[in-house]
Amino acid sequence: MAEWLIEQGIAETRALLIEGEWVLAAKVMWPGEIAAGTRATGRLTAKLKGTRRGVALLEGGTEALVDHLPPQVTEGQSLDLVITRAAIAERGRLKRAQARVAGADTAPPAAALPEGRIVRRFPAGLWEEVWHAASSASLDFSGGEILVSVTPAMTVIDIDGVGAPRDVALAAVPAIAQALAWFDLGGNIGIDFPTLPTKEDRRAVDAALDAALADWPHERTAINGFGFVQLVARLTGPSLRHRFATARLGMAARMAMRRAELAADDGIGRVLELRAHPALKAKLKQPWLDELARRTGREVRIAADPGLAIEAANAQLLDT
Asked: What pTM was estimated for this model as a whole?
């Protein structure tokens, strides 16, 4: 049976849905994020004229856009809220969290991550496979690859392959379903298939999508003559692709912490040396390094190496 495993890393909690040796889905949560389902108290700072929407200042200083405000609510009033979508960073801006006023019928707060079994480490290589796929924004399939790009309007999945358009499109469908789950995608998603000139080919791709996405809650359009399909699914927070698109250094820094922990598990030595690109070294926060030293029981040293790629930090144990 499929099971969610939870790994509590430094500055990041990771979740993988695993069945046997296969990863079915992945999720990430960073400390301090206000996840969808969280109950919060906020003061209404603005009501948007002509709408039932407003802006609330939450405890902690962050803002949320509030939908479906009751007519009697006034600016300055304190509100009991439930977060419906976490804040999402985009290039050059931050989309506020979204919320609504909590009522008597509001469900209990949902967990930020799915319920699962907490493990010290995931099975070897599984998180690395998901992480590198999200970092490269691509997944291979027989005869081609899909590329997953984040834009302010939607996430776009492009298909690149060799062969007849129908064959390429059908071969890409399993990789598309995998990307949706591995990268925790939601919101507006566009899929750009090769142009399929016949209705029979388009019906075949529609049927393949129906089967592949049967267990993934969404709505979608039928594939059009240009090969484009639009999916709409509930968006509750930043996907792995959003995080790489807007916080690549942050993702790489957290992976560097994980690699250092793994190095400490596998060897003997008093000093744990982490080598990283200078830009990545500057991103490593002292509380993270303190936690790394506490977890590993080693002195932690950071060495800057401009020859390393941002994503290629590595660690080793030394005697001195």
From this structure: 0.89
